[in-house]
Amino acid sequence: MTVRGHPWSTSDVVVVGDGLIGLVTAWRAAQRGLRTTIVGRSRPFPASGVAAGMLTPATEAMFGEEPLMRFGALSRDRYPAFVAELEDESGQPTAYRASGTLQIAFDTDDLAKLTELGELQTRLGLKSERLTGRECRRLEPMLAPAVRGGIHVADDHSVDPRALMAALRTAAERRGARVVADRVRAVLVSADRARGVVLESGEEVSADQVVLAAGTHTPDIGGLPEGVVPALRPVKGQLLRLRMPPGEPPIVSRTVRGLVKGSPVYLVPRADGEVVLGATQEEMGDDTRLTAGGVWELLRDGHELVPGISELEIAETCVGLRPAAPDNEPLLGPTRLPGLHLAAGHFRHGVLFTPATGDAMAEALTTGELPDYARRFAATRLS
Amino acid sequence: MTVRGHPWSTSDVVVVGDGLIGLVTAWRAAQRGLRTTIVGRSRPFPASGVAAGMLTPATEAMFGEEPLMRFGALSRDRYPAFVAELEDESGQPTAYRASGTLQIAFDTDDLAKLTELGELQTRLGLKSERLTGRECRRLEPMLAPAVRGGIHVADDHSVDPRALMAALRTAAERRGARVVADRVRAVLVSADRARGVVLESGEEVSADQVVLAAGTHTPDIGGLPEGVVPALRPVKGQLLRLRMPPGEPPIVSRTVRGLVKGSPVYLVPRADGEVVLGATQEEMGDDTRLTAGGVWELLRDGHELVPGISELEIAETCVGLRPAAPDNEPLLGPTRLPGLHLAAGHFRHGVLFTPATGDAMAEALTTGELPDYARRFAATRLS
Prior knowledge:
Two copies of one chain form a homodimer.
Chain A: E1 10-16, H1 20-31, E2 36-39, H2 47-50, E3 54-55, H3 57-60, H4 66-90, E4 101-105, H5 108-123, E5 129-132, H6 133-139, E6 149-153, E7 157-158, H7 161-174, E8 178-180, E9 184-190, E10 193-199, E11 204-212, E12 233-243, E13 255-260, E14 263-269, E15 274-278, H8 292-305, E16 313-324, E17 331-334, E18 340-344, H9 350-367
Parallel strand pairs in A: 1-2, 1-11, 2-8, 4-13, 11-18
Antiparallel strand pairs in A: 3-7, 4-6, 5-6, 9-10, 10-11, 12-15, 12-16, 13-14, 14-15, 17-18
Helix pairs in contact in A: 1-7, 1-9, 4-7, 4-9
C-alpha cells in the first residue's frame, strides 16, 4: 500500500494544511483508498501545536452553542476507539488520558454560573456531578481553600495534541498518503471546478478534490472565486507549559477548570510532568506577540486556582491563533465550487472535534455529502 | 601592540571568567602593558548577560551597607569617563543612558521606607529630591494613579550590560589580550604559588598572576588550597525583557523603581524599545529554573507600578545567579596564595562596580596592593 515518495501525476485528494484537521482528513481519506497528498509546512504558530488538548464538551457547554456541544460529545465518545486505532496504525502514543475533569467556582457569581452550566449539561444529556468545595479538595488536594464548589465530569478527558499530530502524520503516511513540505499559493480552478493546487515552489499538484484545512490561513489561499470561503477571524490564545520538578507528585491529577471571578482558566496535566496553563482569548487580528498582560492573567488566575503552581517551571510559552467562522462553528465538506471542500473554523474545539471531523470529511470525499450529524456545519451555509 | 592569536608560552596575567568583571580586569591589565589571557566560555546563565544594568547606588542604599554604597557612588561617578574611553577604544556603543532614576512608593509603609532611604542618601552625601505623587506622574505619566510619592535621583543612570560586555571584549582584544574559549579545570600551584591554570581541554596556560572572576563558579575551580577562596552563594534572579510595539512612545523614560507593598520591582528602559522588568532575589542554590511564581510576582508588581506594561511583548525571559560572599561584599585583589587574585562576589552590584573594580584590580596586579578605596573589600578578609 505504501507509495510514499512516488511522484504522482495526480491525486484523488489534496489536503491543504498539516494541523490536526488536515492530518485526520488525510488519514481517513487514505484509509478509504483515496490517493492523498498533504501539503503543509510547520507554520510559526499552528493552533494544533499550541492547544492544551482538553476533550471537554460538558464543561465547555455554553447557552446558544448546544449543537456545537452535541457534535463535541459525539466526537468525545469516539475518542477511545479513535486513539486505539491510531496508536495501532502509527505505532505511536497519543497520551490520551481518561481521568475526567473538575470544573470549579470561586465566588458567589462563579457558583451561580456553575449551577447554570450543570442545568445545561443535564439538558444536553451530559453526565456530571455537583460537588461541594470540600469534595473538590478531596479530589484535588492542591486546590485553593477558597474554592466554593464544583462539577465533576467523569467523561471529559484530555490528549496531547502534539503527540496526536505526530501519530496522525505517521498513520497517514503508512496508509500511503504523501506529505509535501510546502505552502499552497493557490487552488487551480478550471471550467468552474477545483483541480488541484499550485505550491509556493511553483510545483502543481493535480487532484480530483481539494480540501482546505489551513486554519486562519485558509481564506488567504489564492485562486478562489469570491464568496466560496467565508472569512475566518484569528482568536489569539496565549498559554504556558509548566513542568513539575522531577520526582514531585503531580500538582493536579485531572483537568481542572476554574471560573475565577468570571475569568476562565484551566490546568491540564500530562503523565510526563507537563501541566498546561491556559488560555487567553483575544481578538487581536494576526498579532502573535506573547504579552506581559496575557501571561500575568494566566499566572494570576492559575495561582488563585492552585497556589502551588508558583513552584513549577515555565518550560514553554505559546501563542496560537484559533480560526473562527462568523458564527463560531466549523466549516465542513463541499463548497459551492465543485471539487473544493473545507475543513476549517474549528475555533476552540479543533482537538475535540478531530475524530468526528475526520469521519465526516472521509464521508464527504467518498459520497459527496456530509453525514447527518455534521450537516449543520456544511461549508455552504455562509456563502 | 596586537599580539592576538600569538601562541604565548606564558602570560603575565590569566583572568578566569569572561563576564563584566573578568573582561574589565583584563582590559585594564592589558592597558597597563601586561600580557593578558582571558579564559571563559559563555555559561548558560552568566550574571552579566542577565543583569538589567542599573547604576543606582543612591536608590539601592540600605542601612548597614554604607561602605558598599560609597564604593558604588565612586564607581558610578567614574562611569561617564569609563564608557567614553571604552567606546573610543572598542568602537562599540554601551547604551549608557544618563536619564536618572525615580524611586516610588505605594502605600504608607512604602512611603515610610522611602523617607528612611532619603535620610540615608543625605547621610551618604548622595543627591536626591523628594517628590509628591503628582510630581512623580508629571515625570512619568504612565505611573499608576496609586503612587503616593517618590524620590528623584538625577545621577543614578543605566547601561546595557550585554553591550558593555561586547565592548569590553573588543577593547581588551585590541589591547592585545588573548581570549581562550574554554573553562578552567584547576589553578596550577607549585612551591606555594599560583603559576597558571589548566583548561578543560587539558591545555595549560602559565602566568605570573591568576585572577579568578568566574562568578558563582569561582569556588568550584580545582587545585586551590583550602580556605583561599571563600564560599560564594548563588542568589537567583529572574527577570523579563519586554518590548514596546514598534512606533509607540516609551512607557517610561528613565529607570523607575518601586516598592510595592514592601516588594521591590524596577523598570529599566533602553533607547531601542527594550524595557527590563526585574528582579526576584531567591536563595535556591544552583536552581536556574524560570518559575511561574517568579514571573507572576514580577508581572504583578510591574503592573501595579505601570499598568500599561500589559500591552508590552515579553521578548525574553532570563534567569541569572548573582555571586554573593558571606558578608555580601566583593572579594578583590590578592589572596593568601601568592600569585592568586580574586575579583568576585559582586552580588547585585556587578554592573555598577565594573569601572571601580577594573581600576582596583589593575592597581593590585601592577603594585601588589589594592587602592585605598577598595581595601575594605580585600579578598583576604574572610580567610
